[in-house]
Design brief:
The protein is mainly beta. Helices cover 5% and strands 34% of the residues. The protein has one domain: Deoxyuridine 5'-Triphosphate Nucleotidohydrolase, Chain A (Distorted Sandwich).
């Protein structure tokens, strides 16, 4: 699948797979230098805009290494990019770690996964069909 991309900032990188074979996500990089203090969050620009095909969505997810080593995650994980959005991709990073975290221009800050999505139509009904779970919510499995 080819995704059209517009470079909005000269420091931007075209997203790419770290390994060609088997990677689901592509790396998103920062075009701004900043320090993310402990407990702080910031919207980090990537300097790119893309055109995701209809029937697909872009899902922005944390990088596991940043999460494990530094406590850097995404506040709205996964972030959703709709197929009709054409603005700059920005990543809402959150520092849950115990130290300030420096972000340099070109640093890999998140990953983007393109996945098929269904367009659902909803129908109001008086009753829902039965299921094995019913209306059991959080913790209802007892495990």
């Amino acid at each position: 699948m080819r995704i059209p991309i517009k470079i909005l900032d000269p420091a931007a990188s075209v997203p790419s797979h770290a390994y060609d074979d088997g990677d689901a996500g592509v790396d998103l990089t920062s075009v701004e230098e900043m320090t993310l203090g402990t407990g702080e969050r910031a919207m980090v620009p990537t300097g790119i805009a893309i055109a995701i095909p209809k029937g697909y969505g872009g899902f922005v997810q944390p990088r596991s290494g940043l999460a494990a080593k530094h406590g850097i995650t995404l506040t709205n994980s996964p972030g959703l990019i709709d197929s009709n959005y054409r603005g700059e991709i920005k990543v809402i990073l959150h520092n849950t770690g115990h130290a300030d975290f420096d972000i340099k221009v070109g640093d890999r800050i998140a990953q983007l996964v393109i996945m098929p999505v269904e367009h659902a139509d909803f129908e109001a009904v008086d009753e829902l069909p039965d299921s094995g779970r019913g209306d059991g919510g959080f913790g209802s499995s007892g495990k």
